[in-house]
C-alpha cells in the first residue's frame, strides 16, 4: 500500500521518524548542552592588566530548569573581574526566585545589566515561520507597530531590586562605572531597542573622560544602536537577543537574527563600522529559549568569558 501522491509509506514514516529524532535532539539534548565561549578583545590601554568579563544573556528562566540553574551557578568558578548581563532573564512570570538563585554566586562579583523585552513581558506562542517572513518584510520587534498591549507583564522590578541589592549597576538608558584594582571602567547602556525603549539621546556623548575604558551595553543589537555607539567611539559593544539564530543549518549558519543585524554577525565577536569609526561587537547566543520554542539546533546555549587585553 502507498501513501497519496505515490510516496511510499516507508519513506513517509522514515521522514517522520527523522523529524521526530531531530526535534528530540534539539529539545532534549542541544538546548541543555551549555557551553562557555572564550574570546580575547584588545581594547585596554597599553600596560593594563587583562580583565576577565563574563557575559550572560537570554537566560529565559522557566520553573524547574535545574540543570540551567546549576550551570549558571558554576560559572562563578571562573572568577571574573566583572559580569555583564545583557537581558531576557525570564520566560516565566514565576521565575524570578530561580533567576536570582541561579545568578546568586555571580552576584558576589561586580556587575552591570540591561533588560530585554522578555524581562518586561511574558512570552507568547509564535509560528517560527513568522521570523523568516519578518526578515523578508524588514519588520522586527515593534518596528512600525504600537506598544505592547494585552500581554502578560513580568515582575521585572523584582529582578532589578535583586540585582541592585547585590551592587550590580543598572544601565537602563544611563551610564555607570565600576572601579577594579585601580582601573576605572565606564559603561553606557540602552534599554531594549526591540520594543523601542532605547533612548540614545539620554546617553549620547561617547566615552567618559577619565575612564580607563568605556564599554557599550544593549540587549538587542539593532543597527541604530550599533551605529550610535560606534559613531561615538566606543571600542566594544556587548549585546544578546539573537539566540545565535537558535535553529541553524549546519555548515551554513543562522537564517534569522530577530532584528536587523545581518546573520554573519548573529553571535560571537565581529566588528561594526560607522561614521569613520570601528567598534568590536560581541553578541552572545545566550543560554535559554522562549518557553514555547524550547529547541536549539546547531547553536548550543552559551555564556562568554571575554578577556580584555591591551591594544596592539
Write the layout of secondary structure elements.
Layout lengths: L8 H20 L6 E10 L6 E6 L9 H9 L7 E4 L10 H7 L8 E3 L3 H4 L8 H9 L18 H10 L3 E2 L4 E6 L2 E7 L23 E5 L5 H9 L4 E4 L8 E2 L3 E2 L13 E7 L2 E7 L18 E9 L2
Describe it for me?
The protein is of the alpha/beta class. The protein contains seven helices and 14 strands. The strands form three sheets. The protein has a six-stranded mixed beta sheet with strand order 1-14-2-3-4-5, covered by helices on one side. The chain has a six-stranded mixed beta sheet with strand order 6-7-8-9-13-12. A hairpin with a 2-residue loop joins β6 and β7. α2 packs parallel to α3 (96-102). The protein starts with 8 loop residues before the first helix and ends with a strand. Residues 1-5 and 10-22 have low confidence and may be disordered.
